[in-house]
Amino acid sequence: MPPRPRTIARKIPAQERAKATVDVLLEATARILVKEGYDHASTTRIAEAAGVSVGSLYQYFPSKEALVAALIDRHMAAMTTMIEEKAAELAMAPLAVAVREAIRVMIAAHRIDPRLHRVLVEQVPRLGRLQRIEQVESRSRTLVRAYLEAHKDEVRPRDLDMAAFLTAHVVEAITHGAVLHEPALLDSEALVEETTTLIVRYLT
Amino acid sequence: MPPRPRTIARKIPAQERAKATVDVLLEATARILVKEGYDHASTTRIAEAAGVSVGSLYQYFPSKEALVAALIDRHMAAMTTMIEEKAAELAMAPLAVAVREAIRVMIAAHRIDPRLHRVLVEQVPRLGRLQRIEQVESRSRTLVRAYLEAHKDEVRPRDLDMAAFLTAHVVEAITHGAVLHEPALLDSEALVEETTTLIVRYLT
DNA sequence: TCAATATGCGAGTGAACGCTCACATTCACA
DNA sequence: TGTGAATGTGAGCGTTCACTCGCATATTGA
Q1: Worst-scoring range by mean pLDDT, A167-176, A185-194, B35-44, B119-128?
Q2: CA of B59 to C1' of D24 (A)
Q3: If you count Cβ atoms within 10 Å of the first and of the last residue's Cβ in chain B, which end, N or C, has fewer?
Q4: 3-state SS track over chain B
Q5: B182 contacts in chain A (CB < 8 Å)
């Protein structure tokens, strides 16, 4: 009977040295992914860029997919943390403020590492780990939905699910579009203001 | 000196038989792309599914990328035609009507072949031919911009570029989101109505 | 009818890639 | 300082894949 294909790492890092290796591998993965794209980011090239051997890579990541998945996790966690913190602050804020700040934090989150974000969203094969990204989008929708529920007396639309769907998608799309295709727009306040107007007018 | 890599097809189809081969190859490409995803859609499998040999495939398409590019062209042309026709009809229509119909036609265009559209947008490696898709998005923005220009007396925002950017991205994003992730939403009229409200309220 | 041309075939080629494993080096701790 | 465990190495294995080429078959037009 052939050994079943490996699905978990052989080792988890125990010593400092090993933790450093894992770190340097993730950094290199991000760099190579941005520079070469997913398809040309071979494990050999990644290991080389990390100054580490392929063997070491496979000590801590059972597959190329797992390596990229770990990077996605790290990146999305950074974005999520930023968003969740702001959301907690804004729970009681009036609509106009909440909307404006929500848009600001979305833009800030997308600016953490825009080029990596782009590669992850655009190139990493779906059906593997990219559910992680959709998970974040779905979480945003839940946050919006909760806010609308708490403020439903100040809000015009009666179908809150629909309103949350629209609002979350709109902010996500504009942020995405701006960060990825029109970075210049981000430096003017006009985008934030216009988007705020758009959403506030819809909700009130 | 090594022969430069081939960039154009060896032959263009002249006989009916050859045109049929090209057609059957494109159909098979669409099917395999949807079923297997880009990475697992090998040229061998595509030729097999088309009931044609790999050799024949390479008679008409110089590379796998060219084959997929041709499919993208075909698919996007179908969507674009639908959109442009409606846009011409709507040039003189009042805002409320134009917005509602624009949203409807966007949804209809995305429904031509949603599963193929999804694969093309999500999986096909960028930096190759997928500019074709962005080209369509940019064309939509131009159409919106032209409409706003012609109706600028009825429209509130003064920065028409910004307004066109927001409007086009919003409709595109909602359509996309609905077609790909919430197909159920498409069967109610509510989505169209709410989105229309969103845009009309912003523009007036 | 027949030759020139167009189309179709598919085993085979070479390169790239993910991943393994036998071995070398470094570290923790007695 | 010695020893077992942890960590690191990289040549090479097996496989997949895009693509080629020499040849077979079908079509066209004279």
Answers
A1: B119-128
A2: 16
A3: N
A4: CCCCCCCCCCCCCCCHHHHHHHHHHHHHHHHHHHHHCCCCCCHHHHHHHHCCCHHHHHHHCCCHHHHHHHHHHHHHHHHHHHHHHHHHHHCCCCHHHHHHHHHHHHHHHHCCCHHHHHHHHHHCCCCCCCHHHHHHHHHHHHHHHHHHHHCCCCCCCCCHHHHHHHHHHHHHHHHHHHHHHCHHHHHCCHHHHHHHHHHHHHHC
A5: 165
